[in-house]
Amino acid sequence: MLDRQTTHALRAEPQESYTDPALLEREQTHVFDRDWVMVTRAGALPNPGDYVTAKLGRRPIVVIRQEDGSIRAFANYCLHRYAKLLDGSGNKKRIVCPYHAWTYTMAGELMGVADREGFCALKTREMGLEELACEVALGFVFVSRRFDLPAPGARLGELAALLANHRIEDYEDRIVVDEEIWEGNWKALFENFIESYHVTYSHKGSIGPTNPTKLAEKGPTGHDFFSLHHNSYRPEDYPPIHNAALTADQRRQFHVIALYPNGLAAVDPNFMWWIALEPMAPGRTNARWGLSFSPHAMAGMEDPEAYVEAIRQTIVVATAEDKEMVGRVQEGAAFGSSERGYLHDWMEVYLAEFRQYIDGLCAAD
Question: Which ranges are annotated Basic and acidic residues under compositional bias (predicted)?
């Protein structure tokens, strides 16, 4: 039994961390307004004009593939009376405001104003949507309000080296779900994903039998912008391998990855499950998620489409199981106790590292 007086034990965050509106407001300002935020996968926007709308914290944005193949991000409001321009995802060659039909190019330039003579004092040809910093790293799209931050590729260079044999930047993005509402704080969802302590006990109907908690392996610790550990397969459940570059260890490992501050990924030899979190309220989060597949697996399997569907069904069940537990955390934290819980010495050390990162941003001036 854990001695409650032990001073070196890792402590969980206070319950109010999941319920306090003022704290969420501070996170919106100090984290989502000031850091790189993961939005989606570049492969979810394969064609010029493909777009997805999202939230940069509380701020509506749109990410859109350009004619030259680049991806750019803009504030998602009209320069006239601030109406939101786009919803959901789709493809547009022009962005037309639904309110008064002001029209913008894919590059955010204002190209048309209805009843133009009524705005004679405006130099509309010089006007455009507010652009945001937008970078692609490891196949993920990151957006920021700031242009002075180190690029995500530089921040995640060590992670890229660890995953070099997988080449997740080349994984085919087959499934994307833009809206998946969780009744829980965004940090509770993030923390649930990045520890394997719960897998056997919470995921009885999905990944628990094949990736039992007892086989979880510690990964490197102390990285500034990410964490990584392994939730390994039982020998009898090793997946078929189609990527010859993978090592013996990589062939049996299911990598669990945190991309600070809001990105998550689980990387298997054949597929990847990723999530990008958008906090909506202290106890409510949108989790955009998707499934991406190794091109080696898609080329090597007899029926790749059946495999994609089988993985989708497994992840749907796993998501439902996780949703229940995150909801239970949210309900339990509503008690408001000042007594802090305890963390597993290594399987939950990544929670402590994540909180150090968030707390560091929130403490900054």
Answer: 1-14
Order of all β-strands in the sheet with 140-144: 37-41, 140-144, 131-137, 71-75, 59-65, 50-56, 89-91
**pLDDT (tens digit, 9 = 90+) per residue, 31-41?**
999 999 999 99
Q: How many domains does the chain have?
A: 2
| pTM (predicted TM-score) | 0.96
CB 239 within 8 A of CB 268: yes
What is residue 93's three-state secondary structure? coil
Q: How do beta strands 263-267 and 255-259 pair?
A: antiparallel
- Is residue 8 scored above 80 in pLDDT? no
Three-state SS at 115: coil
Q: How many angstroms separate the CA atoms of 348 and 355, rounded?
A: 11
132 and 55 in one domain?
Answer: yes
- Residue 62's pLDDT band, with cuts at 50, 70 and 90, is very high
Token pair in block for residue 135: 């970078």
Provide the Cα torsion 217, 329, 180, 322; round to 10°: 40
Tokens of 113: 């104003």
Kindly indicate the confidence band of residue 125, based on its pLDDT and cuts at 50, 70 and 90.
confident
In the predicted model, is pLDDT for residue 349 greater than 80? Answer: yes
Which of 149, 169, 198 is the last residue before a domain boundary? 149
Calculate helix-pair angle for 186-193, 304-333, nearest 10 degrees: 130
Domain containing residue 211 = 1-19+156-365
